[in-house]
Design a protein that fits this description.
By secondary structure, the chain is an all-alpha fold. The protein has four helices and no strands. α1 (2-26) packs antiparallel against α2 (31-56) and α3 (61-108) packs antiparallel against α4 (113-140).
Length: 141
């Protein structure tokens, strides 16, 4: 019963935070404030999910060993997801800035295509490196 409650609390908290942010945005709050609220809600739920399984199985020594092994695997998957997610966000920001500039430079002078496409490829390379790191992390689990 306690396990189901521990699963329900983070999901309910995220749903409530989304609804509160939507209502705040509809009432005229700043978009940056609502996004910051969502990020802080995610961090709170992440911290809750990391602490609660350890606290729930703290009484039994065998359960602690099993939790530690499953926590190590879980943290590996979280690390793989974070490395892919953040590198893709960074790559998207880089390509979002460099691709329009490359298109503009190419439209003015077609000789600039080779020079400008390099900067777009460098931005995409960041995302590929993050994916490779994720593959390496998952293969080591």
């Amino acid at each position: 019963m306690l396990d189901y409650l521990l699963l329900f609390i983070p999901a309910a908290f995220l749903v409530i935070s989304v609804l509160v942010s939507i209502k705040a945005f509809e009432k005229g709050k700043n978009a940056k404030t609502t996004v910051l609220t969502q990020i802080l809600s995610f961090c709170a739920v992440f911290a809750f999910c990391m602490v609660c399984p350890i606290v729930a199985h703290a009484a039994d020594a065998t359960a602690v060993a099993e939790t530690a092994a499953s926590s190590a695997t879980g943290l590996g998957y979280i690390a793989a997801g974070i490395s892919t997610g953040l590198s893709c966000i960074g790559g998207g920001i880089a390509v979002g800035g460099s691709a329009p500039a490359a298109i503009g430079a190419t439209s003015e002078d077609p000789k600039n295509f080779g020079k400008s496409i390099i900067f777009v490829a460098l931005g995409e390379g960041c995302a590929l490196y993050g994916m490779l790191i994720s593959i390496m992390i998952i293969s080591s689990l």
